[in-house]
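Closing statement on the adenosine-2'-monophosphate sub-project.
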Amino acid sequence: MSAQRRLFFALSLPPKLQKQVIQWRADHFPEDTGRPIAAANLHLTLAFLGEVSEQKETALRSVAGRIDAKGFSLCIDDAGHWPGAGVVWLGTRRAPRPLLQLAEILRSHAARNGCYQSALPFHPHISLFRAATRQVAIPPATPHWTLEALEFGLYQSIYERGRTRYSLLQSWPLPA
Ligand code: 2AM
């Protein structure tokens, strides 16, 4: 059997936005809130694929390359805490239609290729902390940043020496 890789499709954050997010997190949350996600790992998941064979990966890369989606702007103006999942996140109050369409097409192709998709509705978010299981005070004034989505990528989640890092395998443009 060929090796499987843990994969997902996501939007990345440009370095300037990464820095703003990290600073906002440091300014508004105590250190013991949970396990902070490293700046380079900040992303917005479009479709989680799980452990994927080489064959499925090839099929999904080919699907991704045929998607005819346009670029869009996403306003980062919402934040919240999911105590069950232990996630503190940043998100948007109004998800733009092109984002929802892109996630929907990726998730439906993932499902067709046998990648289990959660029955929960897609809630676009950037995870800031994991293992945040105790009560968390979300700042009343949320930021107001813009994420320009000009491409999306296929990422591998790699766990080594006690750390997770996300490695970009391939990206596809989202033209204007
Ligand atoms: P997140 O989007 O809430 O942060 C890689 O693991 C990415 O895929 C993470 O960002 C993770 O959560 C997201 N993801 C979605 N469903 C997942 C699942 N069932 N298991 C692990 N990660 C999942």
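The chain has three helices and ten strands. With this model delivered, the sub-project is considered complete and its resources will be redirected to Aim 3.
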